[in-house]
Amino acid sequence: MKMVAFGSSACFPSLKLVFFFTFVSALVTISLQQEQPVLNSAEQESVYQVLSSINSAIPWRTLFPDDLCFYPPHGVVCDYFTDPLTNNVTVHITELNFGYVSDYTPNPPCSPNSTFNPLIFTSFKHLRKLFFYQCFTETQVFFPEIPTTFASSLEELVFVDNPAFVGPFGGVIRNFTSLRRVVLTGNGIYGSIPDGIGDLINVEEITLSRNKLSGNVSVSLAKLKKLKVLDLSGNGFDGDFPCSVGNLTQLLKLDLSSNAFSGKIPQSLSNLQGLEFLDLSFNRFGNFGIPLFLSEMPRLKEVHLSGNLLGGEIPEIWEKLGNLLGIGFSGMGLVGGIPASMGVHLRNLCYIGLDNNKLEGEVPEEFGLLEFVSEINLENNNLSGRVPFSAKFTAKVGEKLRLIGNPELCVDEKLSHGKSNIGKSSLAKLKKCSKPVTPNPVLFVRVSQSGSLSSSFYVLLLFWGLLILFV
């Protein structure tokens, strides 16, 4: 093999090509920087100040000395705008995203001393998205007064897990008439939902979970015809839930869990024909039983009613609910037996929780045919009889097959010694069945083609009659 020294002339052509393309690339970069519009100095200065208020320990001006629309930190997004009269093109900040989420979205990280800079509401006239994740966690930050000139373009307002961020909800959404998404979860937002929320006619998602909101829910929500997600979970709302929400026919998700709603679950919810997720758990709905109108909502994938004392028996409503993946009916005061039809029709079911009720009778054998199920919780009821599941089924579900708290429920001795991972489930804590499984004797009767009983049947009857007579 012929060796070529680094300084050999044989290397020169390739080195010249590298230098040439590097030089051309630099010229193109400089040219693009000169041709594209630049962020105006006032808006650039405001970005620096906002970044400093989020994390003053980072030298933002040193790390990002150039035009922030050409070379910005992650989370700062720009867009181009054309004046329809002059055709002049300008560039402006359209997104501000703060708070490290993951390596895939490495927004500017917040510090324990982060503050909310009011320049956000005065310097960015084209802002479409404002996002804060775990930025205001220690030092209390009050939501500032919003100028009436702001928010003509804001479409997404997202504050996630900022417990020190406080302010009345009515003040937070003021003037945001173009909003499509309002996500305020895990913050210190308080007060009630104002009637003015009905002015957000373009909104598609309202998520207000885990705040300090209270009072009745405004009937103005019914004006939001484009709404697809309504999540009010983890607050202190009370009273009746407005029936008018049944007019939100585009709704896909309704989550009212962990509040203090009372009265009857509105029949009008049956109008939500596209609803896929319904969670009304841990409220004070009571004494009206499981709503029969659930059978009129064929697209439901999850329904959760746990923690409401609805009482009554589990109704036979499952034939049209084959899309259900999860059922949460824990601690509802349910009585009677478990319908076998649940196992027959809900073939896509992954989770079912019927624990802490007053259910009785046997566990339906049909539950053992649920091929996708990963958790069955029947704890703390009055169920009895033999556990009907196969060794293969119990091995698949494992520790998430929960049956303890049913004193009259027993497990077959053969199953307990099989390869069923019984030690990983509650089966190990159940008593062993005293009698082996024996099939009930069935008298075989041959029927003629005409449908009448054969003569041998009458001979058999005569034989048994004589036997009883003379013995």
From TrEMBL:
<keyword id="KW-0433">Leucine-rich repeat</keyword>
<feature type="transmembrane region" description="Helical">
    <location>
        <begin position="451"/>
        <end position="470"/>
    </location>
</feature>
<dbReference type="InterPro" id="IPR032675">
    <property type="entry name" value="LRR_dom_sf"/>
</dbReference>
<keyword id="KW-0732">Signal</keyword>
<dbReference type="Pfam" id="PF00560">
    <property type="entry name" value="LRR_1"/>
</dbReference>
<dbReference type="InterPro" id="IPR001611">
    <property type="entry name" value="Leu-rich_rpt"/>
</dbReference>
<feature type="signal peptide">
    <location>
        <begin position="1"/>
        <end position="26"/>
    </location>
</feature>
<keyword id="KW-0812">Transmembrane</keyword>
<keyword id="KW-1133">Transmembrane helix</keyword>
<keyword id="KW-0472">Membrane</keyword>
<dbReference type="InterPro" id="IPR053213">
    <property type="entry name" value="RLP29"/>
</dbReference>
<protein>
    <submittedName>
        <fullName>Uncharacterized protein</fullName>
    </submittedName>
</protein>
<keyword id="KW-0677">Repeat</keyword>
<dbReference type="Pfam" id="PF13855">
    <property type="entry name" value="LRR_8"/>
</dbReference>
